[in-house]
Design brief:
Blueprint: H1 3-27, E1 34-37, E2 42-44, H2 45-61, E3 66-69, E4 72-74, E5 81-89, H3 91-95, E6 102-110, E7 126-135, E8 140-145, E9 151-152, E10 155-156, E11 169-172, H4 178-194, E12 197-199, H5 204-212, E13 218-225, H6 226-238, E14 242-247, E15 253-259
Parallel strand pairs: 3-5, 11-12, 11-13
Antiparallel strand pairs: 1-2, 3-4, 5-6, 6-7, 7-8, 8-9, 9-10, 13-15, 14-15
Helix pairs in contact: 1-2, 5-6
């Protein structure tokens, strides 16, 4: 894609995010229909409705491009280009009326062939070239095109320059599995003793763009899906931060240590899967 096409893709994703955001705002304090309920997660009817609305908007402007979404896929998943969509990142927050959730849309281009190994560090088979994360409750939109600046509501943003863990706010996610909860307990204890504050906010995409904006200084999660991190990861990189991730077993699963570019060696490791 050329620069003009990438700008069109960003504008399309931003418009789709704003439209879905209106629906989420109007439903925040209403009773939601639950499709599935797990011990540490909830799937809402609005998740599906939001993704369907995003899919229609993307397909109108870019017919034929595949879509990989949390709520399903459209088109050839091995194609040269694909959208990666999380229609509501932070669904549990949203389900309980907590206004900390977002829409995340990324456009990716295939760069090569993935390794057959369960764990792949470094380049993925796809590279994110456009990223949009929209928080409809604060009306904040983060955007980036690969090669350009990261922006929030049109203004250029930069990650913080805090280099001491003692001065930093670190956000973590613990996922929803017993093994990842067990993994993160010693990480949580380590950070509680050394960082200024630790936060568990419940929306990975917002965690990443908060690092990009300098609100947080790092974000760690032991197991997260691609649709949660594809857009926010690019935005963080374009804001001067570091988006380290490693492929895990399971489809589109990663562990993530994201930071402002100054803290990587001062953050605790997240152990690989057994």
């Amino acid at each position: 894609m050329n620069e003009k096409q990438l700008k069109k893709a960003l504008d399309c994703a931003a418009a789709a995010s704003r439209d879905v955001g209106k629906m989420l705002r109007s439903n925040l304090n209403r009773v939601k229909r639950v499709n599935q309920s797990y011990r540490h997660d909830i799937k809402l009817e609005l998740d599906v409705r939001s993704q369907n609305q995003i899919e229609r908007a993307l397909e109108r402007s870019f017919p034929g491009i595949a879509i990989l979404g949390e709520e399903g896929v459209v088109g050839d998943q091995e194609s040269a280009e694909r959208w990666v969509v999380d229609p509501i990142d932070g669904t549990v927050n949203f389900a309980f009326g907590i206004p900390h959730a977002c829409i995340s849309i990324a456009l990716q281009i295939r760069t090569g062939t993935e390794s057959a190994s369960k764990r792949v560090s470094g380049p993925d088979a796809y590279e994110t070239v456009v990223g949009v994360v929209y928080d409809p409750f604060c009306d904040e939109m983060w955007t980036a095109i690969r090669g350009g600046a990261a922006r929030m509501n049109g203004s250029i943003i930069r990650a913080s320059s805090r280099a001491r863990l003692a001065d930093s706010i670190v956000s973590i996610g613990v996922s929803k599995f017993p093994r990842t909860i067990k993994q993160m307990l010693p990480v949580f204890e380590y950070l509680m003793r050394r960082a200024r504050k630790v936060r568990i906010m419940g929306a990975a995409a917002l965690g990443l763009v908060y690092v990009a904006s300098g609100r947080f200084d790092a974000y760690l999660e032991p197991r997260i899906r691609l649709w949660d991190i594809a857009a926010g990861g690019l935005i963080l990189e374009r804001a001067g931060g570091e988006f380290w991730r490693e492929r895990m077993s399971g489809k589109h699963a990663y562990r993530v240590i994201a930071n402002n570019g100054w803290l990587r060696k001062k953050l605790p490791a997240i152990n690989s899967e057994a």
